[in-house]
Amino acid sequence: MIYLVPWGMGVPGSTTTAITIAGLVAILIVVVRVLRLGTVVAADGVTRRGFLADRHHPWSDIYELEVFDRQVVHVAYGFQVTSRYVVTVAVGQRRRRNTLLFLDERGFTSADLFRAELDTVAALWDQQREA
Q: How far apart are CA 27 and CA 21, in angstroms?
């Protein structure tokens, strides 16, 4: 499609090729940015990897770690598209709530593994806050 539209409009072949390559590069950039979305929890804090930018929050800036149970799950064509549990952190002096992307039960094979991961994150948070 990227090649056929300029070609059908009578754009010269070299320009059509350049437009096609630019379009494919743009699609590749979007795919790579979407695939890297998520949350990284490490010894120095929590990093929220967004589409345009990453936000790092050191443990000293995190005042609260909370799990909300929405008790509702949306399913489309047999796939769970929304998570039941949402993990948020309160960050900064104003304690603004940030959702931790993709830190939910959909990434684990069982609810027990999800709980164990949350326990690990909470223990790391407690350990770093005490230090």
A: 10
My answer on whether 9 and 65 are in the same domain is: no
114 CB-contact burial (10 Å; exposed 0-12 / middle 13-18 / buried 19+): buried
Give the span between the Cα atoms of 3 and 37, in whole angstroms.
30
- Residue that is written with structure tokens 């931790």 in the block: 100
Same domain for 105 and 123: yes
Q: In this structure, are 50 and 85 located in the same domain?
A: yes
CA angle 60, 61, 62 (to 5 degrees): 95
Whole-number Å distance between alpha carbons of 85 and 39: 15
**Distance (Å, whole) CA 113 – CA 38:** 18
> Could you list the pLDDT tens digit for every one of the 131 residues in the chain?
666 666 667 777 778 788 888 888 999 999 999 998 888 989 889 999 989 999 999 988 888 888 888 888 888 998 888 888 888 889 888 888 888 888 888 878 888 888 898 899 888 888 887 76
Amino acid at 50: G
Q: Where in the sequence is the domain holding 18, given as residue range(s)?
A: 4-33
